[in-house]
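Troubleshooting log. The previous structure file for this entry was overwritten by mistake, so regenerating from the original sequence record. Sequence copied from the archived sheet and checked twice against the printout by T.R.
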Amino acid sequence: MKPLNINQPGNKCTQQIPATCIPYNGTDITCIGQCDTDMVSDILYKLGQKECYLESLFDMSLLDLSCIYTSCPNCQNPTTVFGVFQVLISVLCTQQSQIAALQTCCNKLNAGG
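Regenerated output below.
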């Protein structure tokens, strides 16, 4: 990380401070394994690592959804969590309608109609 340049016009300070020497004095960020001795550069690195990990968990581009729906020829498979959930909800709703229709049909058959 580049040093903080405080030698800019209008700045009263006359020295450079390496970013690795600026202690983090903010609120605790427990999900990144923060230490009391972490510097701002350490916190930024840990947050970046966490972001990359979470991004990899939510990458839906490699899911094969062909067994639950057939997309149109010019459509792309959903690549977001929202898109995948929407496909799943749509499939479940369609199946629920089909089940209700089958139940009605079976009830009529059982009743002799």
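The mean pLDDT is 82. Archived copy saved in two places this time.
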